Amino acid sequence: MDWSEELDTQSFSGVALLKAASPQGARAADILDRHRVLESLAAYDPEVVGTLPLAIDTPESDIDILCNASDLAAFGAFSDQRFGGFDGYSRRLRDATRHVPEALVVCFDCEGLPIEIFATNRPTRTQYGFIHMLVEARILSLMEDEFANDVRTLKQFGLKTEPAFAKLLGLPGDPYIALGELAELSPSELCERLDVLQS
Questions:
Q1: Which helix (H) or strand (E) holds 192?
Q2: Would the pTM of this model clear 0.90, i.e. be above it?
Q3: pLDDT tens-place string over residues 137-162
Q4: pLDDT of 12
Q5: Which residues have C-beta within 8 Å of that of residue 4, sequence separation ≥ 6?
């Protein structure tokens, strides 16, 4: 059995999820829409990711946007022009790691909402930020509401989202790698891996 459409890799979208996720998600979607943030980024295949689309956010959560940019210097110049006037604007290069290419990270506040844009030369739906959100959405769909509450609690104590999931699920090793490895599992395989009954 395959994943339902809303949890399928081709159909899943944080943008659609964001509007219906929660009052905070709806507010964030409205801010993005009114300031035409995603429209401005359309050439870079933007995807909204993170905790807000999944309704596991805390008061400190920001909006994360992934972009695919083949020329980071050009993307930086574009960001300076388009977002440089927003409060708290900054950008920095993030060195490549074993699993993630070099990236440009752009941050600013929009009506009090922190926004972080992560741009790298990789299609957005293959970036870890998107894959992690997809896996987390699937896990949340299989678990009881108490699990989501436990994730929020750990995050309020300072744990990042992926380590919080890994801790609650008992996943060994690097939590970012461990969660990414679950993306290829079918619903029954993920249920077996997590030792939960499939509804």
A1: helix 187-194
A2: yes
A3: 999 999 988 999 999 999 999 999 99
A4: 87
A5: none
For residue 40, give both structure tokens.
């401005």
Torsion 2-178-124-110 (CA) sign: positive
Q: How far is CA 197 from CA 7, 46, 178, in A?
A: 18, 35, 21
pLDDT the model gives residue 10: 81
CB of 72 closer than 8 Å to CB of 103: yes
Helix (H, G, I), strand (E, B) or coil at 108: strand
Distances (CA, A) of 24 to 18, 34, 56, 64: 9, 15, 11, 14
In order of 75, 120, 128, the CA distances from 96 in angstroms are 17, 10, 13
- β-partners of residue 105 are 92, 118
